[in-house]
Amino acid sequence: MPLPAHLEHVPGPPLPVPSWVPKGFLSVLVAAILNAATRLETSTSVSLSLARFKAWLPTTTRKERFKFAIMITIALFSMFIMGSPGFPLKLAIPALYITAILLPITSQFFLPASPIFLWLLFYYSSGFLSPSTRPHIWVSVLPTLETIWYGANISDILTRAGHPVLDVLAWIPYGIVHFAGPFFVAAFLFVFGPPGSVKFFGSAFGFLNLVGVIIQVTFPTAPPWYELREGLTPANYSMKGSPAGLARIDALFGGHGYTLTFTNAPVPFGAFPSLHAGSATMEALFCSYFFPIQLSLGDGSGRGLLGRWLGKGNKLAIDVRIFYWMYAFWLYWCTMYLQHHYLVDLVGGGCLATLSFYLFLDDTQRHYMEEYYPTNPSAPAPFTTLMQASQSQLHLERRSEDVAMSALPRRSSDVEAAARGSNGAAVKGREDSETLFAVTEEGEEVASRSATPKPVPGKEATKAKESSRQDAERDSFDDWGA
Q1: Which has the closest alpha carbon to 197: 286, 317, 324?
Q2: Which residue, among 413, 403, 415, has the nearest Cα to 464 in the 3D structure?
Q3: pTM score over 0.90
Q4: Average pLDDT, stretch 21-41?
Q5: Those residues with Cβ within 8 angstroms of residue 159's Cβ, 6 or more apart along the chain or in another chain
Q6: Using one digit for the tens of pLDDT, what is the confidence trace for 233-288?
Q7: Closest CA to 451 of 392, 367, 394, 400
Q8: Per residue in 296-317, is it b (16+ CB within 10 Å) or e — as a string?
Q9: Which among 104, 284, 341, 465 could disulfide-bond with 328, CB atoms 3.0 to 4.6 Å apart, if both were Cys?
């Protein structure tokens, strides 16, 4: 259930955009970031966190208690087998985590990221497992499945076309973007996503990787680089990992970073499932669901190279979801080209990511996106709706969850008609007492999500309130971490 009103964090007033910021894309982005900054909590009161925990604890369900029991069990097991740092120095890890979640200023980041921290802890600690307790390493399973299902070893075929240019093209997403991508997605969700979307991402992304590492530890499989280096001879845990194709990047730039990292990896035989592919799939799913943006190129004047090609009065509309999935498939190719994964590993990682995404996608997130948010996953929206999304989160977080979910009605065709002129083009408007979101600028395509009328009671409001209550009971931990 929602926290008592006196325990909730209420965002501050909107911050004005500095006058020196140029209008257009940059001003929209700066305004959204400033709106998001007002939602950050700066309190350091431990008593406030304890009061929130006491209010949240009686509302937990059996499903929640089971989930947290599993997480605590994995954390204790990881701490027990961890060999370095040794006891008692390793006790600093839980001590620092507990301190972080007791301070509201840090708990707003550490609580949503708890599944991710658990994954990192287990991944690191798994390297200290005794070889005598580890299962058999499967060397021929993946190449055999690859040949049976796809008719050939796809990774081997892609590797034959090696070239320094291709090496760099594979290194950029695999060795750089892969590690920075989750931070960018989480930041965009915080700025533009609906309330709870960051917690949703932390749970889905964290459990994707946690379950993936558990599979890799309990079902160890040799990657393509092992087949190329050792053939199909049996593997053992005394063998080190390999950077494979990334060794060429080290040689190109005169470094040893990837060689040292992959040679000493805690899980060298973790080909299946591919967590690189799983992470890219997860990021593409989140961006496609929460940011279905449409970019318009050209001004319709018919001037310039693009204008002459399009013709007078025409614009080029691009659905950016294409680029989300282009990145995902780009990384799929990288994992095979660099000899780190078979195609079957990518399928496993992608399926695991999709399962995790829809497992943690609750009714509250669907309700926000499909009913009350200016962007909707069913159709692309103009870039200017991102500013409306940032404003909407402020409106929703300045009131209790019950009020926010029950008071806002469905968008109607009347609202869409009001947002459009008689000729079907969008009309220029402003946020006023009749709308929660401002109408987009003239010339932009506007869907029915462009404006939301003032709260009015009704049947739909009652339905929304009941949906919110049921979902809050099912996953009330999010309210404590708010």
Answers
A1: 286
A2: 403
A3: no
A4: 80
A5: 224, 228, 245, 336, 337, 339
A6: 999 999 999 999 999 999 998 888 899 999 999 999 999 999 999 999 999 999 99
A7: 392
A8: eebeeeeeeeebeebeeeebee
A9: 284
